[in-house]
Amino acid sequence: MASTETKDPSAAARKDETTAPGSAAAAAGDIAGLEAGLDALESRAVDRQPWLRTAASKAFPPLVAIVIVLVVWQLAYHFELKPHYLLPSPVDVAHSLQQKWLEGTLLSFVWTSVSRGALGFVASVALGTVLGLVVARVKAVRAAIGPILSGLQSLPSVAWVPAAIIWFGLSDATIYAVVLLGAVPSIANGLVAGVDQISPLYLRAGRTIGATGLAGIRHVLLPAALPGYIAGLKQGWAFSWRSLMAAELIVNAPDLGTGLGQLLEQGREFQDMSWVLAAILLILIVGIGIELLIFAPIERRVLRSRGLLVKS
């Protein structure tokens, strides 16, 4: 009986040696599966959907909001909360837009402002990117002008118009100066915020593989700061468009052409509220349209490529 109950130590050792690797692999697999399950519970990456379904899901809520606004507007017109010459109906505003369209001048007004805004924004991106990199990487420069950039970002763009008129007169240079002064601080601050959010590990890894100087900026710094940089570009476009409208409202001369801001000012001079509201509507449509058609897709693509576009 004693011989049958006694175990061979060498056989037990050999059994442990043969089962230990398999047990370790199984344990590692269990841990990996548990981590994957926890990650799946926390978030789920957004899958690409058919563009028709995406367009419908994106367009339906704004359309509902627009319908509600139009209904409230029509009710205010119907009950004469303001005299009709001060508060025209949506139909009156549509007729004003139709008249400008039939005259063949509507697209020229839009194109004048869009071309000015695009040129001013491109120049603002060039200047704001360089300024943002210098402020983000040079401590002395950040200490000197970092607070000034934040202050300039909060300064209303219209405050620059009188100074720009004195400097450049009633010219395109005045308009572009106001656009630059309004947009550059926002773009620079956005890039600085993006650089501040970069993990130091990325920068050390870049220096280790020799990515220093301009190569490090191009291949490490800017790609790593891209989400914050794009947010700064979006805000920069908003400030650029607002600055442009403020400049066009005040800087009005026959040689400058007529943009949407000048169109708005002409409506005020003629005391035509349908004209004024039509110009405001065009300004709103162009600003929102460019943000949705250009910046929003770029931002989604960047976030999706980095695994940052998730659903809870």
Produce a short descriptive summary:
With 312 residues, the protein is mainly α. The protein has 13 helices and two strands, in the order H-H-E-H-H-H-H-H-H-H-H-H-H-H-E. It has helices at 2-5, 9-42, 51-78, 90-103, 106-137, 139-154, 160-168, 172-196, 200-208, 213-224, 226-250, 260-269, 273-305, and strands at 44-45, 310-311.
Features:
mainly alpha; globular; 312 residues; disordered N terminus
Mean of all residue-level pLDDT scores: 78
**Strand segment count:** 2
Structural class: mainly alpha
Shape, per Cα inertia axes? globular
What are the secondary-structure elements, in order, as H or E?
Answer: HHEHHHHHHHHHHHE
Fraction of helical residues: over 70%
The stretches of 5 or more residues where confidence is low (pLDDT under 50) are: 1-7, 9-22, 24-28, 38-43
Q: Main β-sheet: number of strands, strand sense, barrel status?
A: 2 strands, antiparallel
**Count the helices. How many?**
13
| Radius of gyration from the alpha-carbon trace, in angstroms | 30 Å
Strand content: under 5%
Calculate the terminal CA-CA distance, rounded to whole Å: 64 Å
Strand order of the largest sheet: 1-2
Overview of the molecule:
With 312 residues, the protein is an all-alpha fold. Helix content is 80%, strand content 1%. Helix 8 runs antiparallel to helix 11 and helix 11 (226-250) runs parallel beside helix 12. The longest helix has 34 residues, at 9-42. The chain is globular and about 70 Å long. The termini are far apart. Mean pLDDT is 78; it is low at 1-7, 9-22, 24-28 and 38-43.
